[in-house]
Design a protein that fits this description.
CATH class: Mainly Alpha
Distance between the termini: 24 Å
CATH superfamily: Winged helix-like DNA-binding domain superfamily/Winged helix DNA-binding domain
CATH architecture: Orthogonal Bundle
Number of helices: 6
Oligomer: single chain
Shape: elongated
Helix content: 40-55%
Structural class: mainly alpha
């Protein structure tokens, strides 16, 4: 979708786990959105939510301390996976390494290791077999000053 109205993307996409990818020609998307305005509206909504997430990440990169940043990321990842049925009971897949977390947050792997150790020590999380378990959700939310409003996960009628 990010290349639908801009002929050249300024970034690449990749997956960290196995994924199924479909390529839909731009002409087909233009026709689809012209014929079905509700689909166009859903795509616009998704674009606006992406922008909200980007803004939240800009704040995280520039203003949040490492502990708060990583805690915020864990809250976001959990809620997004829960919304699509991939998580529940404060457990979610986290099939990435400390190096991946470091790359995503602009920290070093050593620093990520220290923050994870602190989170474990405070009884907030466990990581085992590529699964994140949030043992103290309310405390993790409080520690990260997490407000899920930007994700717009409320049910729509």
């Amino acid at each position: 979708m990010q290349s639908l109205h801009i002929p050249l993307m300024d970034h690449t996409l990749g997956t960290m786990t196995q994924a199924t990818v479909a390529f839909v020609p731009h002409e087909s998307m233009h026709d689809l959105t012209a014929r079905f305005p509700t689909i166009a509206a859903a795509l616009w909504r998704d674009t606006l939510i992406d922008a909200a997430i980007f803004r939240e990440w800009l704040i995280a990169m520039g203003r949040r301390p490492a502990f708060e940043h990583l805690a915020h990321l864990f809250c976001e990842l959990y809620l997004k996976q829960e919304a699509v049925g991939l998580a529940g009971e404060h457990r979610c897949p986290l099939p990435i390494t400390q190096t991946d977390l470091a790359d995503a947050t602009g920290m070093t792997a050593v620093h990520i290791n220290r923050v994870l150790k602190e989170m474990r020590g405070r009884g907030l999380i466990t990581l085992h077999r590529q699964t994140l378990v949030v043992k103290a959700w309310d405390e993790l939310v409080r520690a990260s000053e997490f407000d899920a409003t930007y994700l717009h996960l409320q049910m729509r009628t």
